[in-house]
Amino acid sequence: MILHENETLPKAEMEDIQLARLQETVRNVYEKVPFYRDKFDQAAIQPSDIQTLADLKRLPFTKKTDLREHYPFGLMAVDQKDIVRIHASSGTSGKPTVVCYTRKDIDMWADLVARSIAIAGGQPGEIFHNAYGYGLFTGGLGLHYGAERLGMATVPVSGGNTERQISLIQDFNPAVIAGTPSYILNIIEKMETLGLDPADTSLKYGIFGAEPWSEEMRRTLEGKLGIKACDIYGLSEVMGPGISMECHEAQDGLHIADDHFIVEVIDPNTLEPVPDGEIGELVFTSLTKEALPIIRYRTGDLSSIQKGICKCGRTTTRMARIKGRIDDMLIIRGVNLFPSEIEHHLLKIAELAPYYQVHLHRSGVLDELALHVELSEEFYLAIGSDMNHPDILMLAKTIQHSMKNNCLVAMAIQILPPKSIPRSEGKAVRIIDKRAHGIQLETQG
Predict the structure, then answer these.
(1) Where is the AMP-dependent ligase C-terminal domain (predicted)?
(2) Quick one: which H or E segment has residue 203?
(3) What is the DSSP string of 338-397?
(4) What's the pLDDT score for residue 93?
(5) Are residues 155 and 302 in the same domain?
(6) Given a cut of 70, is residue 127 above it in pLDDT?
(7) Domain match, 230 and 169 both
(8) Is residue 5 a part of any domain in this protein?
(9) Quick one: pLDDT at residue 443?
(10) Which of 326, 356, 389 is the last residue in one of the domains?
(11) Mean pLDDT confidence for 254-274
(12) Residue at which a domain ends, from 261, 294, 326
């Protein structure tokens, strides 16, 4: 086991580090970022007012819209000549959020991702198969530099070209694979199509993230690949991957790098803190970033935190796996619903493959939901490839009953043959919004 010295510090010592770094960060943004200086002045707060960690709550929040409104470089705390890397979001809903890094930032990021990979079980001298996408997305390059920093031979295969991915896994014998859970599922499916046993590889650990995934998905990935599957968390506005990582020993919450980030959990409506263990919106403050230090950033991600000593020996704060994003939450006839909740119950049904999509429709003034699912290859063959088989109708009723009882939402069910739902080479597309098109629901059962 590889433990960084700061991962096992007593609470008081960690808080001393956090306070000193918080005070320095607040002074820095007040002096160098007009946006923060104006926000602090409006709130009548001076850097000298931050005397304890509790004083952090006096500082204003930062939102994604703030980064977009100051696009591209308005929130930078360094001169442009000091920037060595620029990443950005896809910008599918407006201007992208742009994040920049100094050389020190890149080194710090690599250190934190190296720590994360070690937490998940990676060891120096092993081979690391990186199936995260490279480019403006922070996942690929973030994991790449972290794996190299840890001393692993890194295969920068990126996403896509799945058959080549399989060949490289067979030929190079990596110990660790990293990617989105949905794309790793595609690799598994392609292996099975080729007549290969996904568990018959050198892989021991998987590092999966960039999209919410359930415990049932973990069991599917672990069972198919014969690995320990661990969750990684990050977002570009705060740093990228490596903010927190689940340990392979306990798989009970993601260890946050407390020496580099302060986490809060707030009620997204009242903006007040919620007690440890209760779900709310994650808020992060960076403590060591140079180019884009960020204060109380509202992530939009819903989770909870717990403290105490983990089975692995670390004392760092742990966050639960992401329940969903505030903007991914569906409100169907007054019921709040996240796609991850659907996945949690759907993957328990043996007749189905682990692929699904949620189609939103409008019926009059009300929103309605159709759940598209796929049959497993085994069940499809067992019914003779007959999509009108009586067992299909019975299965549709079983799914409807499960969704209504567990998610409290009535859903139309569309059962499809294997490989009908589009596969993703990155983040899976779970929600298809057809409400503007007046498309009628299709159902079985």
Answers:
(1) 334-435
(2) none
(3) -HHHHHHHHTT-TTEEEEEEEEEEEETTEEEEEEEEEE-HHHHHHTTT-TT-HHHHHHHH
(4) 53
(5) yes
(6) yes
(7) yes
(8) no
(9) 39
(10) 326
(11) 98
(12) 326
Q: Does residue 76 belong to any structural domain of this protein?
A: no
Contact (Cβ atoms closer than 8 angstroms) between residue 139 and residue 132? yes
What is the model's pLDDT at position 283? 98
270-314 tens-digit pLDDT: 999 999 999 999 999 999 999 999 999 999 999 999 999 999 999
pLDDT tens by residue, 319-339: 999 998 898 888 887 788 888
Confidence of residue 51 (pLDDT cuts 50, 70, 90): very high
* Residue 172 shares a structural domain with residue 319: yes
Per-residue DSSP letters for 219-286?
A: HHHHHHHTSEEEEEEEETTTTEEEEEEE-TTT-SSEEE-TTTEEEEEE-TTT--B--TTS-EEEEEEE
Residue 357 belongs to domain with CATH number: 3.30.300.30
CATH value at residue 298: 3.40.50.12780
Q: Residue 311, class by beta-carbon neighbours within 10 Å (0-12 exposed, 13-18 middle, 19+ buried)?
A: exposed
User: What token pair was written down for 357?
Assistant: 């999509």
Q: How many domains does the chain have?
A: 2
- Would you say residue 313 lies in a domain? yes
Q: pLDDT tens-digit profile of 394-430?
A: 999 999 999 999 999 999 999 999 999 998 888 888 8
CA distance 151 to 242: 16
- CB distance 279 to 14 below 8 Å: no
Please tell me whether residues 234 and 345 are part of one structural domain.
no
Q: Which two tokens stand for residue 157?
A: 């295969």
Q: How far apart are CA 75 and CA 66, in angstroms?
A: 9
**Model's pTM, two decimal places?**
0.90
For residue 370, what are the domain limits?
A: 329-433
